[in-house]
Design a protein that fits this description.
Elements: H1 7-23, H2 30-44, H3 51-75, H4 79-136
Helix pairs in contact: 1-2, 1-4, 2-3, 3-4
Length: 137
């Protein structure tokens, strides 16, 4: 049986990740603070899960986290801190992949639904044409 992605699970795990990242401090990186704040607001809103916004903001945050990790490795900061950051980066990558699966699932459902309705409309149009031909013959 196929397992479909759950947007609530993605949102819950991303919120937990953002909480863990908020506990870490990155000196002098204001862009990270803005991105994490925007993503936290996006996840905490009561609106429907927006996979596109999460993809954009999550990818931007991932790039920034990778940049921070490289800077920390070059400067030789605490190895435990870099390891923790790497684990958070891996979690964010997994969430972005899960988000992509969710988007693919929605696209597939939309395509299947559209083709079904297209068949119904085509069938209905054909039946109307046949009825009109029978009336005017």
């Amino acid at each position: 049986m196929k397992k479909y992605p759950d947007p609530d699970a993605i949102r819950f795990e991303a919120t937990a990740l953002m909480t863990a990242l908020a506990a870490m401090s990155f000196p002098g990186d204001d862009e990270f603070k803005l991105q994490s704040k925007w993503l936290s607001e996006l996840l905490s809103s009561e609106q429907e899960y927006d996979y596109y916004e999460f993809c954009l903001e999550g990818t931007a945050l991932l790039k920034n986290l990778l940049r921070i990790r490289m800077r920390m490795k070059i400067t030789g900061q605490k190895p435990a801190f870099v390891t923790t950051l790497s684990a958070h980066i891996d979690t964010l990558r997994a969430l972005l992949l899960e988000n992509e699966r969710y988007f693919s699932h929605l696209t597939e459902m939309n395509r299947n639904t559209a083709s079904f309705f297209q068949c119904v409309i085509t069938f209905t149009g054909t039946m109307v044409l046949l009825i009109l031909q029978m009336l005017f013959i």
